[in-house]
Request: fold
Amino acid sequence: MPDLKLSGLPINKAEKAAIMIHGRGASATNILSLNQYLNLDDFALLAPQAEMGTWYPYSFMAPDQQNKLALEKSIKVIQETWDEVMEAGIKPENVYFIGFSQGACLSLEFATRNAQKLGGVIAFTGGLIGEKIQTEKYHGDFLETPIFIGSSNRDFHVPAERISESADLISKMGGKVKTLLFDDPEHTIREEEIDWVNQNILM
Reply:
């Protein structure tokens, strides 16, 4: 079982769930604090905790072998969290992934490896993981799942080019993708991003 922090409605009483994935050096408790800003009042919130606060040790675009073992272990943690939501009887189309930075990358990676109709994927600064995007890793059809990627257009950790490549692939897999790139150097979550996802995904 993953190390999970829970918040919001009890999972056995909720019709919707959000799997919230924290960034490098942060914690499950950190990402859960976004519920102060996002429209998540009627959600069960599940936030897995990464060992030592990190889902994988190197950049998400490092040579694949460097992150391989840790990444696959982290994908398994997300799968186990997903399985817990499914076992509670919540439908996939009512499940949302929300992540920041490393957690945004992991959210997009897991969802795109298992593309299907979801409630939504909200990636605050992230892209698909790998030295290069390997299309053979990704399967399924998002069936117009709304997917948001917000970031700086010159983020030090997540290049805008990788966001664009990720958005293109996800769109081809049926995702209804919205990207918002801001002309600032900040690695953060902006009020404009919060407003957009509240008005367009978490209505």
